[in-house]
Amino acid sequence: MFGENFRSGYVKYAVVDPPDFDLNAEAAQLIDERYTTVDQVLAAARRVAAKQLAADPFVRSTFRSSFMNKATVSTAPTARGMKEIDWTHDYFPYLRLHEKPVQRFEAEANDSFA
After folding, report:
1. What's the pLDDT tens digit per position in 59-76?
2. What is the pLDDT of residue 112?
3. Is 31 or 103 the better-scoring residue by pLDDT?
4. 89: confidence class by pLDDT, cuts 50, 70, 90
5. Separation between Cα atoms, residue 73 and residue 76, nearest integer Å
6. Confidence at residue 106, expressed as pLDDT on a 0 to 100 scale
7. Can you spell out the DSSP letters for 24-75?
8. What is the pLDDT of residue 34?
């Protein structure tokens, strides 16, 4: 449900907690030998939730799409790069980049093989 809400950008499926829900009281019921405090129980619950969200295909595809739309690449040459990369080198176009959108790399790759 979260993944579909995340993908759609609005609350498609509302999740309602009971009005008398107390997270700390619920966590206190789960204390055992392995998790001896409420904070440890809540930390373990956060890890489980994070793993479930990371495995959700809707969350993954939405995050990947958002990343590709916003990601940029910046480069600066090293001293060795300044010596070895001249205008005939394959990497010359990438010698100095400042916040170049990743999408432009994909577009340029597609154009060069057309």
Report:
1. 899 889 889 899 999 999
2. 61
3. 31
4. very high
5. 10
6. 76
7. HHHHHTT--SS--SHHHHHHHHHHHHHHHHHH-HHHHHHHHHHHHHH-EEEE
8. 95
Residue at token pair 């789960």 = 30
Contact status, residue 37 vs residue 31, Cβ threshold 8 Å:
yes
Give how far the C-alpha of residue 79 lies from the chain's centroid of Cα atoms, to the nearest Å. 33
Closest among 38, 19, 21, 22 to 30, alpha carbons compared: 38
Q: What separation in angstroms does the CA of 12 have from each of 5, 9, 60, 63?
A: 5, 9, 18, 18
| Paired residues of 97 in beta bridges | 75
- With a threshold of 0.70, does the pTM exceed it? no
CA distances from 43 to 2, 21, 23, 30, 61 (A): 20, 18, 12, 12, 26
H-helix or E-strand containing 100?
strand 97-101
- Phi, psi for 108 (deg, rounded to 5): -65, -40
Segment (H or E) for 103: helix 102-112
